């Protein structure tokens, strides 16, 4: 079994412990959605796709387990480190890359290292593109606009009351 699959099996089991079914569904959808976005962005930017997907699978696990988003970047990075050290799927350097990306992922308004940026953008891609009719959070508007340019997205179909493709 590949190590991404192995990590996903671990995360799946952890999410199964969530008793609120609606939140559990949201957690699966978001972690796998960000993981797919991470594949797309890492392939575009020449970053390490497997590691990007692993970071995506772990990035909000702390928040789902604790029920709190307070400081969930740094706390999630510490959780991810202990999981990765237990599962022994990654080298020290890879663990550091994944944990750094998780540590910084909620700081959407600052620019960090390229691999950190990849996870932030994958998170934003899922938040903003999972449902184009939903409004975009102010702190994610600039990244959303940049992603549309990076992926050369043309204007498409929008519900009459929905958002425009170019937020301003
Ligand atoms: Fe998050
Ligand atoms: Fe997230």
Summarize the structure.
Helices cover 67% and strands 0% of the residues.
Whole-number mean pLDDT? 93
Strand content: under 5%
The CATH homology group name: Hypothetical protein af1432
The biggest sheet, with number of strands, parallel, antiparallel or mixed sense and barrel status, is: none
> Which radius of gyration do the C-alpha atoms yield?
16 Å
What is the approximate shape?
A: globular
Total tally of structural domains: 1
Number of strands: 0
Number of helices: 8
In the CATH hierarchy, what is the architecture at level 2? Orthogonal Bundle
What is the CATH class designation?
Mainly Alpha
CATH topology: Hypothetical protein af1432
End-to-end separation? 45 Å
Bound molecules: fe (ii) ion
> Assembly type of the shown chains?
single chain
Order of helices and strands: HHHHHHHH
Low-confidence stretches: none
| Derived structural class | mainly alpha
Q: Fraction of residues in helices?
A: 55-70%
Strands, helices and their partners?
Blueprint: H1 3-16, H2 21-45, H3 49-58, H4 61-66, H5 72-87, H6 92-104, H7 114-129, H8 138-150
Helix pairs in contact: 1-3, 2-3, 2-7, 3-6, 5-6, 6-7, 7-8
């Amino acid at each position: 079994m590949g190590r991404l699959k192995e990590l996903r099996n671990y995360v799946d089991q952890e999410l199964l412990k969530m008793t609120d079914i609606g939140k559990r569904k949201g957690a699966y959808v978001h972690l796998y959605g960000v993981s797919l976005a991470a594949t797309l962005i890492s392939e575009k930017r020449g970053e390490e796709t497997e590691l990007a997907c692993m970071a995506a699978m772990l990035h909000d696990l702390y928040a789902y387990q604790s029920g709190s988003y307070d400081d969930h970047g740094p706390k999630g990075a510490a959780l991810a480190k202990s999981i990765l050290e237990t599962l022994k799927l990654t080298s020290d350097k890879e663990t550091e890359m994944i944990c750094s990306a998780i540590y910084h992922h909620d700081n959407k308004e600052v620019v960090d290292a390229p691999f950190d940026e990849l996870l932030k953008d994958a998170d934003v891609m899922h938040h903003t593109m999972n449902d184009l009719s939903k409004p975009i959070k102010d702190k994610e508007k600039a990244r959303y606009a940049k992603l549309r340019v990076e992926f050369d997205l043309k204007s498409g179909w929008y519900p009459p009351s929905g958002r425009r493709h170019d937020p301003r």
